[in-house]
Amino acid sequence: MTAEPVVTAAPGQEETDGLVVWLQTTDHKRIGILTLGAAFVLFLFDGMLGLTMRAQLARPGQHILSAQQYNQVFTIHGTGMIGLAITPFALGLGVYLIPLQVGAPRIAAPRVTLLGYWCYVLGAVTLVWAFLTPGGAAAGWWGYTPLSSSIYSPGPGMSLWVAGVFLAASGMILQGATVLWTILRMRAPGVTMLRIPVFAWTMVVTCLMTLASFPSLLTAMGVITAARIDPGLLASNAWNLAYENLFWFYGHPVVYVMFFPFVGCVAEVLAVFSGRRFFNYTGTAFSLLAFAALSMAVWGHHLFISGQQVNDYFSLTSILLTIPAGMEYFGLLGTIAGGRLRYPTAMLFALAFIPQFLIGGLTGIMLGTPSVDYAVNNSYFVVAHFHYTLFAGSVFGFFAGVYFWWPKATGFLLDERAGRLHFVLMVIGANVTYLPMFGLGIKGMPRWVVTYPAGAGFSALSLISSIGAGVIGLAMMAFLYNIYISARQKKPATADPWGGHSLEWLTSSPPPRFNYDAQFPIPRIRSFTPALDLRERQRERQRVTPSQRAGRPVTDTVTTDTRAYRDEG
Amino acid sequence: MTAPVSAGPRPGQDETQPRRPAEPDRPRATLRPWTVVALWAAMLGLLVVLDAGFSNNTVVLEVSGSSAGFVFLLAGAVWLDRRLRPDRGYLRQPTRVGSVVLFAVAVTLAWLGFTFGAWLMMVAAVPFIAAVGLEAAARRREKAARRDALGG
Asked: N or C terminus of chain A: which is more exposed, having fewer CB within 10 Å?
């Protein structure tokens, strides 16, 4: 572990406010907020594209979008949600929270983190440009070759898509690397690897997966670029196969990059609002490592029907995932079992995550079985499965984290009534939208169709699904309304409004420039719940009479390490 | 482990400033960071071996094998960094870094050159050179500030 000697903050070097200063900041908290803010704007944009698709499919034979426009919309919806919204949510949370949780004054290589943010933003701009260009990118979020070559996808749209994906993925790699290095090399004294919070463990595996799998996407984008320059390259089928493997070597692990951090959010929220330490902490940490390793070895199940893979191997690894996943659920349920539960909005989102993600996970195991996959491949069953995983699971976990850490980041609380309205609409919207899709898939409705005939038997379930999507739209409006009224009311948050467990709850809300200072020092770390330990010791001391106290050593003295650091312009 | 503290006050450091205390309460069983990464790399390696046993195609083995190898290298880098830089010195916290933004713009323009022509790659040279200039100037200022602080 790295131990940093104390250096002082040079007076007058604190960053001031202002857009230009924010956009050039090296403060991990600001970079985290910028990343999350940009991702949320893109989440709303891509969500609106999703609503447009549901409007198109609400009734049979509609023509809101042409077939080409529909292809463009689902391409950017998929690419945007995965590459520009949920992955940045995951890594942005890490950028913001990890230095606070491990007691570091800053993130490792802050300029690299900032470069990651800018690559991501410029990639996002390029991707949206790819969508707005006439004849824009329309080859799906996977951009299979030879469809994405300049022969079948002429014009600049596809090239811009490739550039955007490359830049956004590069940004995420850079941010993932600095978050990982912060955990591995910048922990405060006493914060051993087995004393970092569960969220930090989920970020360890997330960043490892990012570093191990995202370069494969960059290589795949290189293949498309080469193929667009020289389409003859794809005359050999070897390149097409190589592209499929390279793409899915990123394409499946990214699902877990978009999942693990939100399990971490849910774990933190459940523990705090159950009033208990996270159950089976060490087991969960090791099972996360196993879970992440296995999830790097299942991507071939996306290619079952291609006949190019050994299905036995990928089926085995896919089904083996149930073991570490079961361990995670064991930890989550063991934490709330017997706890004294409180139900603020963050807890409601965390509780809803458990059954909803389970639906996504279990249907994933079904799809990991080739015989089932052959039957429902490329049908709405698959669409339902991954939306339960990513929306009803990960996005719910994200909102649990947002409601939980919002007061820490902003210094004011979100409104609980509006939060509950947001939650109720989200639960209704998610389940009404995605549950009927399982039925549509079983009935045989294929993905990627712009419309369907009236007599196909898809009309009723499609309409229900589209109504549900509208409810999700209302839920997002409720969340925006919540931010608006909360920002107007500015109900101040204390340093620890929830009775948190991890280190970040011991500093101010919002935290000072270098996270901890003389006013908010880092206590002695004895476990993965330092804030809870401190409260318990204080309660214990209050119970002990003064005469008893005189004879016992005081063990909860906080360090006077001010952890103020010097700016070096 | 005792937290390493280098001898003497550093530039800008107040001597009365409390020092980082010795690391408290280290548990008997510890998990070193490089071990975590190496353990994960070993798991990936094991899966590659298992995969080879199923006679999967070579592309699959190459992709997953190179990924496992990369993670092993990462574990080595963590181990080496700990060995070579147990005390990383005082923290450098750069503040305003326009060079980073310009560098990102240069990379974007250069990549877009594939789409819109090589002229865009030449345009990318402008923000790139500006970024290098800003970076060099910032480093010069940083050196001068450190020299002044030591001299003072």
From this structure: C
- Can you tell me the distance from the alpha carbon of A266 to that of A273, in angstroms, rounded to the nearest whole number? 10
Dihedral in degrees, nearest 10, Cα atoms A478, A480, A486, A489 = -100
Mean of the per-residue pLDDT values of chain A: 90
A181 Cα to chain B: minimum distance (Å): 8
Please check whether residue A9 is in contact with residue A562, taking contact to mean a CB–CB distance below 8 angstroms.
no
Structure tokens at B130: 């500006």
Asked if the C-beta of B121 comes within 8 angstroms of chain A's C-beta atoms, the answer is no
User: How many whole angstroms separate alpha carbon A189 and alpha carbon A194?
Assistant: 13
Q: For B143, which residue in chain A has the nearest alpha carbon?
A: A568
| Chain B partners within 8 Å of A315 (Cβ) | none
Cβ <8 Å between B36 and A184: yes
Residue A445 lies in a domain: yes
pLDDT, tens digit (0-9, with 9 covering 90-100), for B54-90: 877 888 899 999 999 999 999 999 999 888 877 654 4
Bridge partners for A412 per DSSP: A492
- Closest approach of B122 to chain A, Cα-based (Å): 17
B contacts of A215 (beta carbons < 8 Å): 70
**A211 contacts B71 by C-beta, under 8 angstroms:** yes
Cis peptide before A231 (omega within 30 of 0): no
Alpha-carbon gap, residue A201 to A556, rounded angstroms? 26
Going by C-alpha positions, the residue among A189, A99, A194 that lies closest to residue A408 is A99
Can you tell me the distance from the alpha carbon of A336 to that of A91, in angstroms, rounded to the nearest whole number? 27
Digit-coded pLDDT (tens) for A215-239: 999 999 999 999 888 888 888 788 8
Residue A521, C-beta contacts closer than 8 angstroms, at least 6 positions apart: A558, A559, A560, A561, A562, A563
User: Which whole number is the average pLDDT over A136-148?
Assistant: 91
Contacts of A220 (CB under 8 A, 6+ apart): A143, A243, A246, A247, A250
**Structural domain for A226, as ranges:** 27-549
Asked if the C-beta of B96 comes within 8 angstroms of chain A's C-beta atoms, the answer is yes
Q: How many of the other CB atoms lie within 10 Å of CB of A154?
A: 12
Mutate to test the interface with A, among B72, B93, B107 (most CBs of A within 10 A): B93
b/e map A6-34, b = 16+ CB within 10 Å: bbbbbeeeebeeeeeeebbbbbbbbbbbb
Query: Which runs of E-coded beta strand occur in A440-489?
Result: none
Q: Which CATH number covers residue A96?
A: 1.20.210.10
Number of domains into which chain A is organized: 1
